[in-house]
Amino acid sequence: MTTTERPGTDAERLRGRIAAELERTRARTALLTDAVDDDDLVRQHSTLMSPLVWDLAHVGNQEELWLVRDVGGREPVRRDIDDLYDAFKQPRKDRPALPLLPPAEARAYVRTVRDKVYDLLDGIRFTDRRLVEDGFAFGMIVQHEQQHDETMLATHQLRAGAPVLDAPPPPEPRVGVGGEVLVPAGPFTMGTSTDPWALDNERPAHTVELPAYRIDAAPVTNGQYRAFIADGGYDQPRWWSEAGWRHRVEADLGAPLHWRRDGDGWAYRRFGRWSAVRDDEPVVHVCWYEAQAYAAWAGKRLPTEAEWEKAARWDPATGRSRRYPWGDGDPGTAHANLGQRHLWPAPVGAYPEGASPLGVHQLVGDVWEWTASTFRGHPGFTAFPYREYSEVFFGDDHRVLRGGSFGTDRSACRGTFRNWDYPIRRQIFSGFRCARDAGCEE
Ligand code: AVJ
Ligand code: FE
């Protein structure tokens, strides 16, 4: 930052940061794929998911397409496998039957691609094209791999058999958190035009005016969700949307995914281990329809995406929007439960340092939070660098999730980051919190 620095020093620092992020990310991919044997890697554990070996080579193929070929202008490593690892050409349910690279070849392939990337990173000029400005293309590829790592983590959660993943439990509560926070009416800045590695759907920054609303200070917990079940929430169509009720009946939903009755209570399976459901943790593995029904039962609703983001980023003292609830600094271990450091959500109150200025807790990490909103481009959206990352998913089919889960890496999670999925999906690490209009008192 100082003027005495030699030209090139900033670029050197960026190179170092990119290399470190690539390495850190690959270590996680290796952990997830080395944890099981070859049989397990090529098997499909759920028709919703790819075989793990597909994710592995797909990660390498995207890295080859964008960094080796496009950014580096190098010869293809394996042009012949592009179609196999194109997510749009190969539906997930068909992937196990494809002539995929066997585990040893997939590992060799991603290593070859990565070696070429390190080589081209050495000579890169970050000013040549918008694609590489501030290292964007590298950041995009780091995030892509991290997103697939979270997908692979969800595959591990669906996988039957002996447990293979281990991590220390998340921290215990340090403060009591409950009730709602009032967010006053007024404008705030949504999205970003400046965060260098923000993806196209987070851009551009724009002003959104919201009426006053109340939002839960914490995500809905297992204990709260159990009260909904015990009150017959799954048996009363009046709490459900029409489409939600149809799905509830058809899929025979009665509790979050991975739960089963255990005497008078409930148990859940987490990465191959069963234990009694703990009441003070955010509920996870619910679909949008279940979240919506719970909110209606509670006399509330899901927050819109803008409401979620204002609660997470808006600083009443300055009027600015922060990168994260706690400020502009990157997530530390005291801020949020991210990055698979733990294998399940932390109890409510475990991250007081991660609270937003208004006192809303655990917005980032723990569980992805369903919002009421369908997935659309922000005003002024332009697809970059390819339409297939976000734009082809805009419309009424998906709902937006915010905040990241315990399985989301910090590189793939910001106050502006947007995830989306079908309203029936619950194999992802999805939970929610509720909101309501400020005008309506009980
Ligand atoms: C942003 C999580 C919805 O995994 O389907 C991965 C991210 N895009 N490869 C997904 C993604 C291309 C995407 N989500
Ligand atoms: Fe992908």
Layout of secondary structure:
Elements: H1 9-34, H2 38-42, H3 52-71, H4 103-122, H5 136-158, E1 180-183, E2 186-190, E3 206-210, E4 213-216, H6 222-230, H7 242-250, E5 259-262, E6 265-270, E7 273-276, H8 288-297, H9 305-313, E8 368-375, E9 395-402, E10 418-421, E11 430-431, E12 435-437
Parallel strand pairs: 8-11
Antiparallel strand pairs: 1-4, 2-3, 4-12, 5-6, 6-7, 8-9, 9-10
The structure holds N,N,N-trimethyl-histidine and fe (iii) ion (FE).
Overview of the structural elements:
The chain is of the alpha+beta class and 442 residues long. The protein is 30% helix and 13% strand. The chain is built from 9 helices and 12 strands. It has helices at residues 9-34, 38-42, 52-71, 103-122, 136-158, 222-230, 242-250, 288-297, 305-313, and strands spanning 180-183, 186-190, 206-210, 213-216, 259-262, 265-270, 273-276, 368-375, 395-402, 418-421, 430-431, 435-437. The strands form 4 sheets. It has a 4-stranded mixed β-sheet with strand order 10-9-8-11. Strands 1-4-12 form a 3-stranded antiparallel β-sheet, covered by helices on one side. Strands 5-6-7 form a 3-stranded antiparallel β-sheet, with no helix packed on it. A hairpin with a 2-residue loop joins strand 5 and strand 6. Helix 1 (9-34) packs parallel to helix 5, helix 3 packs parallel to helix 4 and helix 3 runs antiparallel to helix 5. The model has no long low-confidence stretch (mean pLDDT 96). Bound molecules: N,N,N-trimethyl-histidine and fe (iii) ion (FE). Fe (iii) ion binds at residues 58, 62, 87, 144, 148.
